[in-house]
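Lab notebook page, bench 4
Experiment: in silico fold of construct C2
Operator: M.H.
Input chain length: 131 residues
Purpose: comparison with the prior construct
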Amino acid sequence: MSGITNDPSITWASTALNWCVRRHRMISSNIVNRDTPGYRAQDIDFKKVMEQIGTEAEEVLQRTDSGHLPGLSRGASNVLMVKEAAEGLDGNSVNLSEEMAHLVENNYTYQALLKHVNRKFQAIKLAVQGG
Protein backbone atom coordinates (compact mmCIF):
# COMPACT_ATOMS: atom_id res chain seq x y z
CA MET A 1 0.00 0.00 0.00
CA SER A 2 1.21 3.48 -0.71
CA GLY A 3 0.19 7.09 -0.58
CA ILE A 4 -2.60 8.03 1.77
CA THR A 5 -3.03 4.42 2.90
CA ASN A 6 0.64 4.01 3.80
CA ASP A 7 -0.31 3.45 7.43
CA PRO A 8 1.81 0.78 9.16
CA SER A 9 -1.19 -0.49 11.12
CA ILE A 10 -3.10 -1.08 7.87
CA THR A 11 -0.12 -3.01 6.52
CA TRP A 12 0.03 -4.94 9.80
CA ALA A 13 -3.68 -5.79 9.66
CA SER A 14 -3.51 -6.69 5.97
CA THR A 15 -0.73 -9.17 6.63
CA ALA A 16 -2.60 -10.66 9.58
CA LEU A 17 -5.76 -10.96 7.44
CA ASN A 18 -3.78 -12.88 4.82
CA TRP A 19 -2.59 -15.32 7.50
CA CYS A 20 -6.20 -15.74 8.68
CA VAL A 21 -7.22 -16.67 5.14
CA ARG A 22 -4.39 -19.20 4.93
CA ARG A 23 -5.41 -20.68 8.27
CA HIS A 24 -9.07 -20.86 7.20
CA ARG A 25 -8.09 -22.83 4.08
CA MET A 26 -5.98 -25.22 6.14
CA ILE A 27 -8.72 -25.82 8.72
CA SER A 28 -11.26 -26.33 5.92
CA SER A 29 -8.94 -28.88 4.34
CA ASN A 30 -8.75 -30.73 7.65
CA ILE A 31 -12.53 -30.87 7.87
CA VAL A 32 -12.88 -32.10 4.29
CA ASN A 33 -10.31 -34.84 4.96
CA ARG A 34 -11.71 -36.01 8.29
CA ASP A 35 -12.57 -39.41 6.78
CA THR A 36 -9.34 -39.82 4.80
CA PRO A 37 -7.27 -42.69 6.26
CA GLY A 38 -3.83 -41.57 7.41
CA TYR A 39 -4.55 -37.85 7.00
CA ARG A 40 -2.74 -35.65 9.51
CA ALA A 41 -4.51 -32.46 10.58
CA GLN A 42 -2.53 -29.28 9.96
CA ASP A 43 -2.82 -25.82 11.40
CA ILE A 44 -1.01 -22.51 11.41
CA ASP A 45 0.22 -21.45 14.81
CA PHE A 46 -1.26 -17.95 14.61
CA LYS A 47 0.32 -16.93 17.90
CA LYS A 48 3.73 -17.87 16.53
CA VAL A 49 2.97 -15.98 13.32
CA MET A 50 2.15 -12.88 15.34
CA GLU A 51 5.33 -13.23 17.40
CA GLN A 52 7.63 -13.79 14.41
CA ILE A 53 6.10 -11.12 12.24
CA GLY A 54 5.85 -8.73 15.17
CA THR A 55 9.58 -9.05 15.78
CA GLU A 56 10.29 -8.14 12.15
CA ALA A 57 7.89 -5.20 12.32
CA GLU A 58 9.90 -3.38 14.95
CA GLU A 59 11.50 -1.52 12.05
CA VAL A 60 8.14 -0.74 10.43
CA LEU A 61 6.07 0.35 13.41
CA GLN A 62 7.54 2.78 15.87
CA ARG A 63 6.28 2.13 19.38
CA THR A 64 5.83 5.38 21.25
CA ASP A 65 5.03 3.68 24.53
CA SER A 66 6.38 0.47 26.08
CA GLY A 67 2.79 -0.68 26.61
CA HIS A 68 2.06 -0.71 22.87
CA LEU A 69 1.96 -4.05 21.10
CA PRO A 70 4.36 -4.76 18.25
CA GLY A 71 2.91 -4.98 14.73
CA LEU A 72 3.23 -7.26 11.72
CA SER A 73 5.26 -7.13 8.54
CA ARG A 74 4.99 -9.46 5.56
CA GLY A 75 6.73 -12.76 6.31
CA ALA A 76 6.91 -15.57 8.84
CA SER A 77 8.28 -19.07 8.81
CA ASN A 78 8.08 -22.30 10.78
CA VAL A 79 4.46 -21.79 11.75
CA LEU A 80 2.96 -25.01 10.37
CA MET A 81 1.78 -27.50 12.96
CA VAL A 82 0.94 -31.11 12.13
CA LYS A 83 -1.12 -33.09 14.60
CA GLU A 84 0.75 -36.38 14.90
CA ALA A 85 -1.43 -38.20 17.41
CA ALA A 86 -3.92 -40.37 15.56
CA GLU A 87 -7.52 -39.98 16.71
CA GLY A 88 -8.93 -43.04 14.98
CA LEU A 89 -7.90 -46.54 14.04
CA ASP A 90 -7.36 -45.40 10.46
CA GLY A 91 -4.52 -43.07 11.52
CA ASN A 92 -6.49 -39.91 10.80
CA SER A 93 -5.71 -37.17 13.31
CA VAL A 94 -8.64 -34.83 12.54
CA ASN A 95 -10.90 -34.06 15.49
CA LEU A 96 -13.99 -32.40 14.03
CA SER A 97 -14.90 -30.61 17.27
CA GLU A 98 -11.41 -29.10 17.53
CA GLU A 99 -11.43 -28.06 13.89
CA MET A 100 -14.80 -26.33 14.24
CA ALA A 101 -13.53 -24.49 17.34
CA HIS A 102 -10.41 -23.40 15.41
CA LEU A 103 -12.65 -22.18 12.57
CA VAL A 104 -14.73 -20.06 14.95
CA GLU A 105 -11.63 -18.66 16.65
CA ASN A 106 -10.08 -17.78 13.29
CA ASN A 107 -13.30 -16.11 12.17
CA TYR A 108 -13.35 -13.89 15.28
CA THR A 109 -9.74 -12.89 14.65
CA TYR A 110 -10.50 -12.11 11.00
CA GLN A 111 -13.55 -10.01 11.91
CA ALA A 112 -11.60 -8.02 14.53
CA LEU A 113 -8.82 -7.27 12.04
CA LEU A 114 -11.35 -6.26 9.41
CA LYS A 115 -13.01 -3.84 11.85
CA HIS A 116 -9.61 -2.30 12.54
CA VAL A 117 -8.97 -1.74 8.82
CA ASN A 118 -12.47 -0.33 8.31
CA ARG A 119 -11.98 2.14 11.17
CA LYS A 120 -8.67 3.26 9.66
CA PHE A 121 -10.26 3.86 6.26
CA GLN A 122 -13.16 5.71 7.87
CA ALA A 123 -10.64 7.99 9.60
CA ILE A 124 -8.83 8.58 6.29
CA LYS A 125 -12.14 9.34 4.57
CA LEU A 126 -13.07 11.80 7.31
CA ALA A 127 -9.68 13.53 7.03
CA VAL A 128 -9.97 13.80 3.22
CA GLN A 129 -13.48 15.22 3.48
CA GLY A 130 -12.21 17.81 5.93
CA GLY A 131 -14.37 16.70 8.80
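Observations: Helices lie at 8-32, 46-56, 96-129. Strands lie at 42-44, 80-82.
Next step: discuss at group meeting.
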